């Protein structure tokens, strides 16, 4: 019998008995976990027409803000999946930030958005809303025929390899049943039961800490800014503190408490209130909407693929919260895996293509762990010397602009560029670095709409002021003419540089495979083979 | 540009005086903090990462601890 593990913010997929519970059925893809990663993957696969079943042990989105910051790449993915508008409409965009050291304000900053992108650098939004918007998009896709199924109160209790599939044992309110998955994807979170069931380790513990999280509802006037304290002056506040605006008059507060704490005592309401009172000052009325203690470690699995089982999101890698690299990198895992699973299931690519998922997303995880470790080293100096330098940076930053870029309270998640990895082709153009092979395409305004909204049809051959050859296996072709399509000049700046024209081969996840100054069918064809894992070199 | 390791400071005695004067009256912790700020200010002035790496190496190589047992 499955028990609810946590209180729901939204009931999204109530338990309903499935016909599968009467006989063992084999599915192409089964996803375990209906969080942001599992839902994004299910939606992506379903929109490609791939049948997919999501198993989740609860019936919706759990309470509390948890992931709160969705970065540009995630918003672009959500747009491609048809969930972006709701996220952008609900999310909070903030620009003003303040950094404090003790009771002193070190400096404040105003983030000016880079022009020519449909999406902002990030929005703040509570995780349950993000999950709800994905499920809403899944419901719309289902209405249009996408073969996606979400089964609530389906808890996985065991897995076993069988011939050509993985057998999955599931517990439900109506008892146990089993189903089979040609491919099983574990999106079941940092404590991933599937990882344990497969006997896989989770290596590289780098950093340990506890964060007390309080979602505080304030209807009083309080600025929509991000405030970050190093060594906050409030009693018992810990090493750092963060105040971040979210929708619906909610402010999220994170107190970094250190490793050896009494979790139960710290969650006592009076104690939480004492901390929040000290931070917000006297006379600020608020309600405690949700509190939790969050523990993290920086680590990842040795491999994200274990035969027919793939790991994505927190189940595969965990980082500190600084820089919002958890949910954001997980959604990128999902997008990386979706088209590869689709290509393998359609017989367009060998199963070994899935090893490139492991290769690319492990590189991304290492990059995130590196960034996150650097931020934690700045936030929590480990030695006297590192504290001295940290404090020196903070002391200088008030007066001298040069020291401000050294302040590291987390570097916002940006997508990994797959430089030099197996699926990345050649740069025969030598164009702008930001759009080199391996990079995700950068958005640019067109005469109507934005570039990324036009790169949604699978493998796309993009020509800018260049002729496009006929290449078998290419799903979509987009021919742009800068005289007609580039009103701001940003398309040229981002994709041509000094070149008179260019042809780009772009993957279904909008990463660049290769680019050339002019179209040559044989080279495009070879690059397509490379990107689908059908050849060793292009 | 390469890291300059030949004499480059005019009036070396005067410079050394000013360096010590900046630390005058400071506790060990205050001196360490001042040095840290000084390193950051100077490093930013240099800017060139390759030169800075050379500077780290030069400083590290010269700081090798002599094999002397203080209790002996």
Structural summary, described in words:
The complex is a heterodimer of chains A (538) and B (72). With 538 residues, chain A is an alpha+beta fold. Among the domains of chain A are: 8-90 and 125-203 and 299-367, FAD/NAD(P)-binding domain; 433-531, Glutaredoxin. Chain A is 28% helix and 26% strand. Chain A has helices spanning 36-47, 72-80, 84-90, 127-143, 193-197, 263-266, 269-280, 326-345, 353-379, 384-397, 482-485, 490-495, 521-531; strands at 8-11, 26-32, 52-55, 60-62, 69-71, 96-101, 104-110, 122-124, 148-151, 155-162, 165-172, 175-186, 208-217, 226-230, 240-246, 250-258, 287-297, 299-300, 305-306, 309-311, 317-318, 460-464, 476-480, 502-506, 512-516. In chain A, the strands form six sheets. In chain A, strands 2, 3, 9, 10, 11, 12, 19 and 20 form an eight-stranded mixed sheet that branches. In chain A, strands 7-6-14-15-16-13-17 form a seven-stranded mixed sheet, sandwiched between helices. In chain A, strands 23-22-24-25 form a four-stranded mixed sheet. In chain A, helix 1 (36-47) packs parallel to helix 4 and helix 1 packs parallel to helix 8. Chain A is globular, with a radius of gyration of 24 Å. Chain A starts with 7 loop residues before the first strand and ends in a 7-residue tail after the last helix. Chain B starts with 11 loop residues before the first helix and ends in a 10-residue tail after the last helix. With 72 residues, chain B is mostly helical. Chain B is built from three helices and no strands. At the A-B interface, helix 10 of A face helix 2 of B.
